Give the backbone structure.
Amino acid sequence: MSKKMHKGEHEKLLKKARTLLERNMGITEIMEATGLGQQDIMKEQQKMRK
């Protein structure tokens, strides 16, 4: 991730991304809503499948 974040902020955004993935939102929409990168979202999506 290119932006510097405060401690815990990245985890909060990952949790939000997980919620949005559960609502079947697209990766591009999640990237815009959270500011996370595609790799972070894809990793979270893979974790959900396990």
